[in-house]
Amino acid sequence: NKEFAVIGLGGFGLAIARGLVKRGNSVLGIDKNRMVIENNAGELTDLVKADASNIETLNELGIADFDVVIVGIGAIERSILTVQLLKEVGVEFIMARAQNETHEHILYKIGVDKVIIPEKDMGDRVAMMLSGSVFLDIVDLAEDFSIAGIKVGEKYSGMNLGEIEFRKTFGVTAIMVHRNGKSYPLNSPEDKLFKGDVVFVSGRYEELENIKEI
Amino acid sequence: NKEFAVIGLGGFGLAIARGLVKRGNSVLGIDKNRMVIENNAGELTDLVKADASNIETLNELGIADFDVVIVGIGAIERSILTVQLLKEVGVEFIMARAQNETHEHILYKIGVDKVIIPEKDMGDRVAMMLSGSVFLDIVDLAEDFSIAGIKVGEKYSGMNLGEIEFRKTFGVTAIMVHRNGKSYPLNSPEDKLFKGDVVFVSGRYEELENIKEI
Ligand SMILES: Nc1ncnc2c1ncn2[C@@H]1O[C@H](COP(=O)(O)OP(=O)(O)OP(=O)(O)O)[C@@H](O)[C@H]1O
Ligand SMILES: Nc1ncnc2c1ncn2[C@@H]1O[C@H](COP(=O)(O)OP(=O)(O)OP(=O)(O)O)[C@@H](O)[C@H]1O
């Protein structure tokens, strides 16, 4: 069972800390603001008032022993500084939030493993849901199992899965096709694909992200 | 092409408005705060300074002509009042944010079509991602195609898909099974399921949400 630490218990950090606690994970919450610590007493496994942008403090907290550290600090410079220190003390996996894409690029450059721009991600997902369009994003269902929707272009239009040699050609499994607002399962090599279709394919994230169009 | 209106351009409303605009949708932004309107000039299709918790204003805005209205107002009473007025003028599809589950229940009771608790949804999704566990949520990939991960219990343990008569019994298609940290495709009636497995199934959202355990 992994050990989590969340630095910065604003809206973002607290939401993640709660999500983790709900799933039975042990979570240490760290915030420099006493009020924040008091307001969250009893809700997290452990709470510590500390300023994480200070290497002695990080060492005292034993932050390098955590499996995952989430940086919920919004302020750009302080978030970057904190992440840099976490890299220096050797934290294994860091997730951090970013305010915008410039902030995101800097965080990835200094070695953050996963960046989230909370409002942008939510805005995108909700917009997709509301536009009645299909998810063209990659959706992770498990560590080794993701699904993506990919548009069918000119090249294979009118051919069936057998003729395309789908699995061999793309390295992923075609499971469903979305055409004119309806979804149809793809279970036979006779199933045809046409230009404009969206094919849902499953496989590992790394295999899926390489496929731009069919 | 649908017409969207977003009432309340705080963090949530603005994120959704931007997500929609990015996808080529036309979006009317409505906010009672002049500063908010000025700060977003040029970014949305149209911007109007107006107080939406007022039925004459809603009628003047022609809000009933929009296909989808998103209520981004955070304040609980004002959000409920605004939604109630939108129902009264006959808006076809309403999405609204809620602060917590009580607020969410009230909104569903008064007829909101879709409620989002932004921080809770994000906290849950990120927590699932970080715990390295499988997603047990229902994931919507298209209006008629969703996927859910469902735990296998005692009842069918050791039986294969053919013996279980999976599709007939559950009304959904089994596509993948996750066992001991690995995922395996389910393409044959000979494939067995065991207690503790997570089976990924696909189908319409309404069929999936009724299945609690296998
Ligand atoms: N160096 C630090 N060490 C510990 N906690 C910190 C540090 N810097 C900021 N915080 C805490 O992080 C939390 C988030 O603060 P910040 O102002 O950076 O972001 P925010 O955008 O207001 O957050 P949110 O939108 O998630 O509420 C606050 O509770 C703050 O006390
Ligand atoms: N009746 C109303 N008509 C139009 N706009 C409104 C109304 N009530 C609130 N708003 C606007 O909605 C926006 C969100 O305000 P509110 O204070 O309700 O939520 P919030 O929790 O601060 O929002 P967020 O967290 O998304 O920034 C503000 O820009 C506010 O001016």
Description:
The structure is a homodimer of 214-residue chains. By secondary structure, chain A is an alpha/beta fold. Chain A has 2 domains: 3-119, NAD(P)-binding Rossmann-like Domain (Rossmann fold, 3-Layer(aba) Sandwich); 130-208, Alpha-Beta Plaits. Chain A contains 9 helices and 11 strands. Chain A has helices spanning 11-22, 34-39, 55-61, 76-88, 101-109, 118-130, 161-164, 166-170, 205-208, and strands at 3-7, 26-31, 46-49, 68-71, 93-97, 114-116, 138-142, 145-151, 173-179, 182-185, 198-203. Chain A has a 6-stranded parallel β-sheet with strand order 3-2-1-4-5-6, sandwiched between helices. In chain A, strands 7-8-11-9-10 form a 5-stranded antiparallel β-sheet. In chain A, helix 5 links the parallel strand 5 (93-97) and strand 6 (114-116). Chain A is elongated. The two termini of chain A are 40 Å apart. The mean pLDDT of chain A is 91. The interface between A and B is large, with 57 and 57 residues. One adenosine-5'-triphosphate binds next to helix 1, strand 2 and helix 4 of chain A.
